[in-house]
UniProtKB/TrEMBL annotation:
This is Bacterial extracellular solute-binding proteins, family 3. Keywords: Signal. Residues 1-24 form the signal peptide. Gene3D superfamilies: Periplasmic binding protein-like II (3.40.190.10). It comes from Vibrio aerogenes CECT 7868.
Length: 301
């Protein structure tokens, strides 16, 4: 009997040791998350991604331990960031529009970070051209005008694949200058980008304004992507995002950054042109309606 009790005590001590070690592993692990920095001093487009990422890590801190989150020390163009991520260098996470190629190249976390809001595209134009745009009643008329987009942006390929006339630029800030000097007629922007971009550059480009009557829509989710071997980080962030969706903190951050723009865009006053995104993989969870923003009321194509 005494031997049995002794064995039970030893077993209990061993189990406590294991549990203690597992807890220590979780609390002592330090997760370092390194993301791409802004593309210019005026570039504030990605603040919500950073806040979402921080919150997802915070939601899993009790189970997975502490974390550090910081930008890369070096500035690079997006293509270079992607190459470095693929090689296992800094950054170890990016946020990017979803394509079949990126899903094959990286490990995706399949939760649309902005609920697809970037797919609602309005235009920066020269204010003097508003009458020209107000007269447009079909997508074919719009295709006769020239759109400006970044050379590495998926939007350039989406527009071109749908028959739009696209002029590309290699500098984010340079695109605003190109619009101002007439290199193209309009600069499609996400509804969550356009007003802050205009406000920040009003002094440099006083002749530019937001077009008031048109909107292009195509499905354009953005995901977090990590290196294919970094399954731990992908799992931790995915768990954190799901907790955020369930407890409402994901929606709270989304509305914090986007409610003003959703209201300001006046969808009821705009002619909507729906176009295809041929680069969208079949794995995108379009059927999960709770993950998406739905502003569509009418659609003219």
């Amino acid at each position: 009997m005494m031997r049995l009790n002794l064995n039970l005590c030893i077993l209990a001590s061993f189990l406590c040791f294991l549990c203690g070690n597992q807890y220590a592993d979780a609390t002592e692990r330090l997760t370092e998350v390194i993301y791409p920095p802004a593309q210019s001093n005026l570039d504030k487009r990605d603040q919500d991604f950073i806040e979402i990422l921080h919150m997802a890590l915070k939601k899993t801190e009790a189970t997975d331990g502490a974390f550090i989150i910081r930008p890369t020390k070096l500035a690079m163009n997006p293509l270079r960031f992607h190459r470095e991520l693929e090689k296992g260098n800094e950054p170890n996470i990016i946020w990017a529009s979803v394509t079949k190629q990126r899903e094959e190249r990286f490990l995706p976390i399949r939760i649309p970070l902005r609920k697809g809001i970037l797919g609602y595209r309005v235009f920066l134009i020269k204010a003097a051209d508003q009458k020209k745009f107000s007269a447009i009643t079909s997508v074919n008329q719009l295709k006769q005008m020239k759109a400006g987009q970044g050379a590495t942006w998926l939007d350039s390929d989406i527009l071109a694949s749908n028959g739009f006339n696209v002029e590309v630029g290699f500098s984010y800030e340079g695109l605003f200058k190109m619009l101002g000097i007439g290199r193209f007629d309009y600069f499609p922007r996400g509804i969550n980008e356009v007003y802050i971009e205009l406000q920040q550059r009003k002094n440099q480009h006083p002749d530019i304004d937001v077009e008031k009557t048109l909107l292009i829509y195509y499905p354009l989710p953005k995901y977090f992507f990590v290196n294919k071997e970094n399954k731990y980080l992908a799992n931790r962030i995915e768990r954190g995002l799901k907790i955020m969706i369930k407890d409402g903190s994901f929606e709270k951050i989304f509305m914090k950054y986007n409610k003003f723009y959703i209201d300001a865009i006046r969808m009821d006053k705009r002619r909507i042109f729906k176009i295809d995104n041929p680069f969208l993989p079949d794995t995108v969870p379009l059927e999960q309606k709770e993950l998406w923003l739905n502003l569509l009321q009418t659609a003219d194509k």
